[in-house]
Amino acid sequence: MAKPKSKSLVREYSEALGVALLMAMALRTFAVEAFRIPTSSMEDTLLVGDFLLVNKFVYGAKAKVNIPLTEITIDLGLELPALKDPNPGDVVVFTYPIDQKTNYIKRCIAIGGQVLEIKNGVIFVDGKEFINPPLAKFDGRPRRPRGHGDYGIWPQTKPWNKDNYGPIRIPEGHFFMMGDNRDNSLDSRFWGFVKRDEIIGEALILYFSWNDTAPFWNVFESIRWSRIGSLIK
What we know:
There is one protein chain. The chain is mostly beta strands. It has one domain (about 35-225): Umud Fragment, subunit A (Ribbon). Helices cover about 15% and strands about 35% of the residues. It contains 3 helices and 13 strands, in the order H-E-E-E-E-E-E-E-E-E-E-E-H-E-E-H. The strands form 3 sheets. The chain has a 7-stranded antiparallel β-sheet with strand order 1-2-13-5-6-11-12. The longest helix is centred in the N-terminal third of the chain and has 22 residues, at about 10-30. The radius of gyration is 22 Å and the shape is globular. The N and C termini lie far apart (about 65 Å).
């Protein structure tokens, strides 16, 4: 009886590596993905240089695979059922409505069917004040009066500004997003609503944070140790 041929060491390692890569791609596609914060629009909740994990399956992950080292994305046409939809207060990652190749992270302020209005910098949803997160940031400048439109405000047909905006009803299946750095955030006030199918996931936890303003030779000071492992709220 012939003995089965044993696999070469190279083949065994190659197969193990292939399985590991497939599992990693499946995890990244359907469960958890890592993101980095490049701008200050979510200060002081999220800082430039924060690295976070995003829960993708909670909102129903889509099977889109990014080919490493390329800008090619393959849509496999699969989608997991959502456990919930984004709610006001959630910190959400989504594809930028104006550029689908770019991901944004903002806080969900209002959902489809709700009416949003901003009066002198204070947010109201369905007539009730939206409670700002503990680390929301404001620059202290004088508020721009109602009727004095801001350049680039959305929709352009309205004489609104980022301090006095609306009222506006959010269409069903859409969301209104804003940065926690309220006075320095390019958000739904400037580019409109986010569609449900543009939602990627909910920000979950910080796994690393790097302060690039610290001296580069001092690694200990460059790492924001106190932020590592923090839940995002």
